[in-house]
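Prompt: May I have another protein with tokenized structure?
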Amino acid sequence: MITLTNPIKINNSIGGVTTLNYDIFRVVNIVADPVNQIINAQVQLRSSSNASAPLITGNLFIQTQGSPVATLTVGDLGVFISMNISTAISTIQGWITSLQNSIESGLISESAVVGTQSTGV
């Protein structure tokens, strides 16, 4: 969860003048594909001051192979941001590998899978 320094302000009613700060940004439902080096996730914006305010959702897509790119889309707000990630490729690939290794190690340590973990996919 990220608390936004400059929260998004949205009118709390149609035609209203009172705004509600959407100041919490969460990345959820993360799917990391270690073979294709892709991360796909849902993003959520919510208000910390009003728990009953509806969530605003969007998508995050990160691709590190081919044409590396990260895109953040929040359709309800008309937001589409495409970012060049060429300087962060190895860092992002490290996130994916670390996640994969942690899950595999956990499965073995909990005896859910019997075997020996090795690096790679």
Notes: Strands lie at 2-11, 19-33, 38-46, 56-63, 69-74, 79-83.
